[in-house]
Amino acid sequence: MSHKFTIADCEIVDLPIVHNESGNITVMENSGNLPFDIKRIYYLYDVPMGSERGGHGHYDLQQYVIAASGSFTFVLDDGKDKKEVFLNHPNKALHIKPGIWREMKDFSSGSVCLVLASMEYTEEDYMRDYVQFLEYRNE
């Protein structure tokens, strides 16, 4: 069923902010304010200017992607339509659903891309060839 999601299903989610005069905090908890339990956390940083990342899709994985620092752009593709999503606030997450191709670009200096994932790493969940991705989407 994951190939039935479209780019319209991938939305920016406002994360809760606890304001304090000494700084803000945002909390996300399994069985709380997340649509999936976190099984893996990773982050990208020191991405050279002009570099692109991603270039793959997932069969089952869901992700919350957050610009913990700086900014970058996600290009989402469902095999029919594409959209670009600019991330630059640590209290906003991009919820990427399964079956969506993603590419990342336009990393600002010092950017940190934090990813909360619904599954542990498994190579079998990746679609790394765009033609394979399109075939999957058209099944």
UniProtKB/TrEMBL annotation:
User: Which InterPro entries has this protein been placed in?
Assistant: QdtA_cupin_dom, RmlC-like_jellyroll, RmlC_Cupin_sf
A Pfam family it matches: FdtA
Give all residue intervals belonging to the Sugar 3,4-ketoisomerase QdtA cupin domain.
Answer: 9-137
What domain of life does the native source organism fall in? Answer: Bacteria
Q: Which SUPFAM superfamilies match?
A: RmlC-like cupins
Spell out the protein name for this chain.
WxcM-like domain-containing protein
Species of origin: Kaistella flava (ex Peng et al. 2021)
